[in-house]
Design a protein that fits this description.
The protein is an alpha+beta fold and 124 residues long. The chain has one domain: Trna Endonuclease, Chain: A, domain 1. The chain has three helices and six strands. A hairpin with a 2-residue loop joins strand 2 and strand 3.
């Protein structure tokens, strides 16, 4: 069995998933911050619109969750910059796990199932 991802590694993995999706959809990624306490994680532009993207990643069976406090803080920041807020919730499972417990422990360099449904609007 390999080394399980720690919280930072899991967080950065989720950011990479979202980054690749953004590039594939034609977004220009302007900045990426992988620190867990910095929001938003991704600053991107598409069709002259600036996007502030908050990424949260969790292990199977959970999905990343946007807290109301973070949403409010990022929304205020976005308002000053005329940016649109989006949330990216990512769930990661160990593809080699045979039980729920094993699937909930993604490993560095392992194989993964990823649950990601694209960018979501911030809750109002």
């Amino acid at each position: 069995m390999g080394k399980p991802m720690n919280g930072e590694e899991l967080h950065f993995f989720g950011i990479r998933v979202v980054y690749k999706d953004l590039v594939d959809q034609g977004y220009e990624v302007l900045n990426v911050r992988k620190e867990m306490d910095v929001n938003p994680q991704i600053l991107a532009r598409k069709s002259d619109t600036l996007y502030f993207i908050v990424v949260r990643t969790a292990t199977y069976p959970q999905m990343g969750v946007l807290t109301p406090e973070v949403a409010a803080k990022v929304s205020m920041h976005a308002l000053r910059h005329k940016a649109v807020c989006r949330f990216a919730s990512v769930g990661v499972a160990n593809a080699n796990g045979e039980t729920d417990e094993e699937m909930g422990r993604p490993e560095l360099g392992g194989e993964f199932y990823i649950n990601y449904n694209g960018l979501l609007p911030f809750p109002q």
